[in-house]
Amino acid sequence: EAQVTQNPRYLITVTGKKLTVTCSQNMNHEYMSWYRQDPGLGLRQIYYSMNVEVTDKGDVPEGYKVSRKEKRNFPLILESPSPNQTSLYFCASSSSSGLLYNEQFFGPGTRLTVL
Amino acid sequence: AQSVAQPEDQVNVAEGNPLTVKCTYSVSGNPYLFWYVQYPNRGLQFLLKYITGDNLVKGSYGFEAEFNKSQTSFHLKKPSALVSDSALYFCAVRDRRDTGKLIFGQGTTLQVKP
Fold first, then answer.
1. Which of B88, B77, B92 is nearest to B31 (CA)?
2. From A41, A56, A105, residue closest to B100, measured CB to CB
3. Per residue in A11-59, pLDDT tens?
4. Which residues from chain A sit within 8 angstroms of residue B41, using beta carbons?
5. Strand pairing partners for B66?
6. pLDDT attached to residue A99
7. Phi and psi dihedrals of B36, rounded to 5?
8. pLDDT of residue A66
9. Which residue of A has its CA nearest to B107?
């Protein structure tokens, strides 16, 4: 089954404790992206990757890091989480063939709470 | 700057009635426009897209959207709403000149009552 998976689905942590949210897709997609969803703000793009070893900032990259060492994986790293990073996070992927108009496939989301 | 606006936080309709969820955008040049739906505790699912051509685009689950260039709008419509259509709907735009970025609106909750 074609899918985007995220782990963990739920995470409660404390300020300053480094964490990683994993994202993996099995569709051989070149493009992957991370979003955060906050009430009243919709989805805001954190980082995206056009292919392996190619990453770029979205609209809200501060406090986050990403890496793209393999095509299927795109982990999101919070080196020193803060309470304002409490949010619902989504990973997405799409084929870059015709990237401009290809729809994205979304993971199930990771709900992060930073105390 | 690119932006997408969904002016209604919530839309309420009765089952069987037509529904419209509004979206306006601001982007330089010709945009690519999308609608996504999010059911409770789920990720987003693609509904439909406008790339070029006919201004009326048909998508999944009986939804359609009308692109209006002069009004910079891309409203989502359905002739007859179902209770199961109740969900959170997002409009999104991609700028052809900045292919990596996808800008979402703030979302509109659609509530369809029996």
1. B92
2. A56
3. 999 999 999 999 999 999 999 999 999 988 999 999 999 999 999 999 9
4. 109
5. B56, B75
6. 59
7. -125, 155
8. 98
9. A42
